[in-house]
Design brief:
Rossmann fold, seven-stranded parallel sheet
Length: 410
């Protein structure tokens, strides 16, 4: 009887230890990654990408979270952005990889891109959460792919890259990825973006207000930098005419349907990462035409985009086309594309609706909610009134709380 009692006691103790580990909160840092045409915390004269006039990052710090803001190339490819993100977090000289640099004619290690590190302790024992808005969500997934792969200098795969990132496998470095309004499957607006509509309407207007020194395209890998007394308009024009736009190593390819399909094939869900998605929609179905039109609350700048996307078909390289389920959008990204990756050639990622209080599992996507907001409003741009601003801040606080409620890694 005593032996039986001791055995039962040991099992109870073991069970309690396992439960304690399983439900132990983590305090892992949270890294925020901006999207296409985004900017860092020290640019745009204090107007924040994350929050506009209301600093989301500072608010979260005041709530006790360890959060950091990355600043990666606003028009660069997801590969280049993910490499920059790695070195910004870990610290060190950016290295895009010898093979990648040779393929696209890049400067492999631009001197201007050497970082002290937002979180130098980052490794398997000290993982991070990533929250990405728009293309920033794709960049987070590309970083996952780069971390979990080894890249070689030749087809024989005998000599790996010498890069700290690309030459080694780094599993378990990311605990979760949260995406907001991300074009997981691309956007039917991508070809319009290459023609410069969002550039001209968004960035040039802001730059005219804040001056020439407050925005950088961060394209040093292409040998492209701002010249002395060059005006911002001239700098912008030179960037738009750069040869990089004729390659697949720029944002226009990555946010296209086919570019997104490529990423979805390379980076399916990882079995040890939790995935969450927030979507935005700010159009309504026009019953007379069968198309989607902008909601009256949509930012005026985005309405022309929304009307085009609300009736447009786009095509993959195999000739298949989007259908009417792609009409709903937030002015930049089709809502259906924001739920999670579904177009990889090896099949869809598993996406389920999030239910509060349920046990969360890694290796699948939880779609939390679709909000009636345009592409910018979710992160605070154009929000008016204390109630809406407080709702936005509370939403980010709730997400950070949920991330830190995930179990600690073994």
């Amino acid at each position: 009887m005593i032996l039986l009692h001791n055995a039962l006691l040991r099992r109870i103790i073991l069970f309690l230890i396992l439960c304690t580990h399983l439900f132990a909160d983590n305090k892992y840092p949270i890294i925020f990654v901006h999207g296409f045409m985004g900017w860092g915390p020290d640019e745009m004269a204090g107007y924040k990408y994350w929050g506009g006039k209301n600093d989301i990052i500072n608010y979260l710090k005041e709530q006790g979270f360890e959060v950091y803001t990355a600043s990666v190339g606003p028009v660069s490819s997801n590969w280049d952005r993910a490499v920059e993100l790695f070195y910004q977090i870990k610290g060190g000289q950016v290295d895009y990889g010898q093979d990648h640099a040779k393929t696209f004619g890049l400067i492999q290690k631009p001197e201007a891109k050497n970082f002290p590190g937002l979180y130098p302790d980052w490794d398997q024992s000290h993982p991070i959460h990533i929250i990405g808005h728009s293309m920033g969500g794709q960049t987070a997934r590309m970083l996952q792919y780069l971390l979990e792969s080894v890249f070689y200098l030749e087809e024989e795969k005998e000599q790996p890259e010498e890069s700290t990132l690309l030459g080694y496998v780094h599993t378990g470095w990311i605990t979760s990825i949260t995406t907001i309004s991300t074009p997981h499957n691309g956007t039917t607006l991508s070809d319009i973006i290459t023609k410069g509509i969002p550039f001209l309407q968004d960035v040039m207007g802001v730059a005219a207000v804040v001056g020439n020194d407050f925005y950088d395209f961060d394209l040093q890998q292409w040998g492209f930098e701002k010249r002395g007394e060059e005006t911002w308009a001239a700098y912008f024009r030179r960037m738009r005419e750069h040869k990089a736009w004729g390659t697949r190593n720029m944002c226009a390819w990555d946010i296209s349907l086919e570019g997104a399909r490529t990423l979805n094939t390379l980076a399916p869900v990882s079995s040890n990462i939790y995935y969450f998605s927030y979507a935005t929609s700010n159009t309504r179905l026009d019953s007379a035409s069968g198309f989607h039109v902008p909601h009256k609350s949509m930012n005026l700048i985005l309405r022309a985009n929304a009307r085009i996307m609300g009736r447009k078909k786009a095509y993959w390289m195999d000739g298949t086309a989007t259908d009417s389920t792609w009409y709903e959008n937030d002015g930049i990204v089709n809502t259906i594309s924001q739920l999670g990756p579904t177009t990889g050639t090896d099949g869809e990622d598993h996406i389920v609706a999030y239910k509060a209080g349920e046990l969360l599992l890694p290796g699948q996507w939880y779609h939390i909610k679709t909000y009636n907001l345009d592409h910018k409003a979710f992160i605070g741009h154009g929000l008016k009134g204390d109630e809406k601003i407080n709702e936005m801040l509370a939403l980010f606080k709730d997400q950070c709380n949920m991330l830190q409620s995930l179990p600690e890694k073994e």
